[in-house]
Amino acid sequence: MEAAVTQKRDVILVAEDNLDDMEMIREAFAEAVGDGGYELLLASNGEEALEILLQRSLPSGRDEGPLPSLVMLDLDMPRMNGVDVIKAIRSTRRLRRVPVLVLSTSTAFPDIDRCYCAGANSYLVKPHTISELADLLKTTLAYWFGVARQPSKSRGDCNGQ
User: pTM higher than 0.85 for the full model?
Assistant: First the structure.
């Protein structure tokens, strides 16, 4: 886990097991937002991503940083795939409200359907170039942090809401 962009506002957690894709994502984020107010956390697999989320969702005073405002997951990861991470997030009260996007090379409808059925908020197909990925990220971040309204930063659960 490493911060690629200085934190100013929102934390984005990206889980990607392919080192080349991870580097492409890091470069595309830099191209898309520069130092545009995001802290980028990178996890190399689904288990690591879930561990980061669980550590950050602890009650105030014991947490290890702010809860991510957005989680982006690769679908096919070893040890714990993207669908399993989504299910774990959705079954953890303190994490349920975190928006989860899948970023995958798969365009197969069974994969897309599995992600939405598990509770994904969006499914994005990975482009093949850094420039195309940067454009996708600009559009995605503009939507999630500009047009859409984010849930509160409270670490409370969704009971009664």
Answer: yes
